[in-house]
Amino acid sequence: MNKSSALFLLVGKELVKAQSASEINLEARDQWKFTQNWIAYEIGLACQAGLDVWVVCDGVKINFPVPYLNNYEVGGIKPSDRAFLSFWKQIFEIYSNGGDCSVGFWDKFRIPRTFTCPHCGAVFNLHTELRKGRKMPCPTCLGTLTFPDGWLRG
What we know:
The chain has helices at residues 13-22, 26-48, 82-96, and strands at residues 6-11, 52-57, 71-73, 114-116, 123-126, 134-137, 144-147. With 154 residues, the chain is α/β, with parallel strands linked by helices. It has one domain (6-147). Strands 1-2-3-5-4 form a five-stranded mixed sheet. Helix 1 crosses helix 2.
């Protein structure tokens, strides 16, 4: 972590399934507690070090709270999509050049992405284009976020 530029938490089907199983199965609950504690520990280290914390959901809805993130991508992993690859190439170039993607970073490019959760007040960059009426959970409090006008749509 000391040599890292950012922390990326990939939330995939198996992680979401593990959390869901922990609600009904005692053995799964014990395994999930370990996983959840490890995630919280790593995020805490990144936050203490002043690193950007990304939560990237791969086609799933997050079902456990993640504190201290400052970048949220819910569009899924699309390696065959040129725009997707271009976006991530730009992100990794920013970090490899000593930059960061903290809240407000994109505003200088006239791409406002900063979002504030109306339920918990968490502030993060939301990188996913959303259609009108889309609903999704806040990554910090899991409250339902509604986008009546969409997000990042021109």
